Amino acid sequence: MTERILITGAAGGVGTLMRPRLAAPDRVLRLLDVADLPPAAPGEQVELTRASVTDPAAMSAACEGVDAVLHLGGHSLEQPWGQILDVNINGTYTVLEAARQQGIRRVVLASSNHAVGFVPSADGEAGDYLFPRPDTFYGVSKVAVEALGSLYADRYGLDVVCVRIGSCFDRPKDARMLATWLSPDDGARLFEACLAAPEPGFRVVWGVSDNTRRWFSLDEARALGYESKDNAEDHAAAVLAEHGEPDPDSLAGRYLGGVWCGPDFDTAI
Ligand code: 15L
Predict the structure, then answer these.
(1) Count of the separate structural domains present in the chain
(2) 266 lies in a domain?
């Protein structure tokens, strides 16, 4: 039977990386974004929807006939509070509510390391379910995303898996990402595990590759069936040649959230 998965924020960084990787012969990807989505490639089984995650009617329509939602939509960087509140927090409520009303049983939510960004890296491996310590309004929104997911799991019985994504890019871009990198292929493996695990209930897992310098636990992700095959160390020589060794006294060396923990950090990054 063909399954249909709704991906919000499909034109964004992670969405673009996931689109080809989550394609499968028995699967239709319904891709939603406020931004332009590239048209379907020949043979690609996609449905394109231009809409905002904050629009209840559009989200309800987008959730019709869908088996699971991968909610990646929202601001991916720091923004003024009003924007974060509207798009990331109210948007996630709107997605969950539409999913519930349409009887969707499984939602995977993109959370972030910035939900716990002010945790010192010197504390040792960051466990799953680490108590929130956000580094920005964006980080606060990810805490709220997880809280909303928890509510919809407990109150309505949805399976909700929150992924605290490290740094999901083609390759690690700086020394910090040698610890926080989630390779795109591992990202797809992890999302597949989140979609397939039988009756996970509510979970919070780290989204990271099995990097030699990894700061985050893989226990809960592995319990869902995720097996990382990539390691940022394969890129270490190139990254360190360009950026130098990580400075333990810098923000990037002191906190999980890196430069996002700076007092002047704003929308500049
Ligand atoms: C995130 O949550 C951001 O969306 C992404 O742009 C990266 O900056 C990443 O965290 C990170 O911490 O590297």
Answers:
(1) 1
(2) no
Dihedral in degrees, nearest 10, Cα atoms 123, 236, 228, 43: 140
Residue 267 lies in a domain: no
pLDDT at residue 267, rounded to an integer: 59
CA 20 vs CA 16, 29, 45, 68, 209: distances in Å: 8, 10, 10, 17, 19
Which mutation among 113, 183, 256 tests ligand 1's pocket best, with the greatest number of atoms within 8 A of CB?
Answer: 113
Range of the domain at 212: 3-261
pLDDT band at 1; cut points 50, 70, 90 = confident
Ligand 1 in reach of 141 Cβ (< 6 A): no
| CATH number, position 8 | 3.40.50.720
32 vs 6: CA distance, rounded Å: 7
What is the three-class DSSP state of 3? Answer: strand
Q: Whose CA is nearest to atom 9 of ligand 1?
A: 167
Ligand 1 centroid–CA 160 distance in Å is 21
Per-residue pLDDT tens digits for 116-168: 999 999 999 999 999 999 999 999 999 999 999 999 999 999 999 999 999 99
What ipTM goes with this model? 0.98
Question: Both tokens of residue 25?
Answer: 């012969």
Banded model confidence at residue 97, pLDDT cuts 50, 70, 90 = very high
Mutate to test the pocket of ligand 1, among 141, 163, 167, 206 (most ligand atoms within 8 A of CB): 167
